Task: inverse folding
């Protein structure tokens, strides 16, 4: 009996030791950025960030696919314009955003032609001086009613003999048995826009580690390799009569320092004192401006949480997105720390 207990103890120790060793092994990450503007031309700060952080991949939005209601046909809008060449040091991953409305209205017979049109359009926009097209990423918040069409579209794109990835929302990871797993090589887990931004009571709709943890409790069970993208953007949400009115990207607290125009409700909420024009829109007295940005410590904490939960050892770790105004909220050291957070698992 004593020998049996000793054997059990040794066995338990070996299991715990193996698990601890596994958890302590740092992930092998490829650093990347998203570029989400229609004109590709980097500022000096953006160029320096790519160089200083040794960025190896750039996910560049090539165009959007939306539904043209009058013509009852999908259309490509906001195509990328390369007024400057992307750096040779980065692999370019064309990314295409498809609206769910497009999939709702698209006839089944048009799925294959649209797949071909998307691939042809990407090739026509791909920079000549860049190396071979290796990977394409599709961004779409599909639903249960559009899942079949979307997955068929992805399967058609996969036939072009390229690596195919797709963005995965947090709810699509948590409920993957219901929402389905897209037929692609890898998924890009989008760790942002995780709370109800229409609700004025929501403290931060972009990101909090607490909300992230609620979605990824069983992340290691997701049946496909995952990459990760974390948010470094900021915005202001405007409410009128306590109802959502509009987003204003890259608008932070500094814009509301004029006390003649705005009353400071708290560190995040600013209220218009009179009818006026500001930020290119008409503003009414009582309009509420809620600024949202992601604190660096929260970003660091969230990055550690999600990287430890992902089961695959090799992955791309990306930030959204490469923009001087977004970068201005973080120091070079903080950006570099995010890209090396996987090394803290030792």
Result:
């Amino acid at each position: 009996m004593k020998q049996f207990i000793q054997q059990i103890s040794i066995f338990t120790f070996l299991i715990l030791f193996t698990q601890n060793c596994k958890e302590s092994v740092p992930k092998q990450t490829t650093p990347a950025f998203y570029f989400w503007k229609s004109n590709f031309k980097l500022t000096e700060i953006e160029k320096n960030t790519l160089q200083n952080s040794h960025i190896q991949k750039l996910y560049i939005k090539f165009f959007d696919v939306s539904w043209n209601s009058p013509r009852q046909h999908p259309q490509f809008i906001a195509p990328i314009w390369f007024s400057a060449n992307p750096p040779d040091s980065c692999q370019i991953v064309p990314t295409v955003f498809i609206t769910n409305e497009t999939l709702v209205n698209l006839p089944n017979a048009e799925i294959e032609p649209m797949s071909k049109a998307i691939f042809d359009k990407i090739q026509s926009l791909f920079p000549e001086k860049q190396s071979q097209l290796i990977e394409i990423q599709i961004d779409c918040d599909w639903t249960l009613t559009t899942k079949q069409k979307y997955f068929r579209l992805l399967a058609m794109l996969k036939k072009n003999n390229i690596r195919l990835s797709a963005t995965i929302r947090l709810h699509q990871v948590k409920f993957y048995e219901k929402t389905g797993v897209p037929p692609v090589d890898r998924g890009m887990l989008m760790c942002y826009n995780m709370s109800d931004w229409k609700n004025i009571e929501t403290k931060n709709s972009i990101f909090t580690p607490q909300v992230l943890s609620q979605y990824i409790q069983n992340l290691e069970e997701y049946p496909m390799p995952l990459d990760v993208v974390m948010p470094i953007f900021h915005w202001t949400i405007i409410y009128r009569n306590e109802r959502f009115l509009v987003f204003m990207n890259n608008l932070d607290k500094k814009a509301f320092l004029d006390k003649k125009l705005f009353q400071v409700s708290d560190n995040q909420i600013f209220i218009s004192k009179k009818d006026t024009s500001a930020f290119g829109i008409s503003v009414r007295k009582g309009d509420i401006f809620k600024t949202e940005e992601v604190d660096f410590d929260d970003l660091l904490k969230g990055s550690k949480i999600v990287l430890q939960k992902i089961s695959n050892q090799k992955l791309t770790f990306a930030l959204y997105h490469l923009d001087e105004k977004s970068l201005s909220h973080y120091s070079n050291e903080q950006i570099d720390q995010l890209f090396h957070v996987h090394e803290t698992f030792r």
About this structure: The domain at 28-232+298-345 is CATH 3.20.20.80 (TIM Barrel). Confidence is low (pLDDT under 50) at residues 7-23. The longest helix spans residues 2-24. The first strand starts at residue 28 and ends at 35.
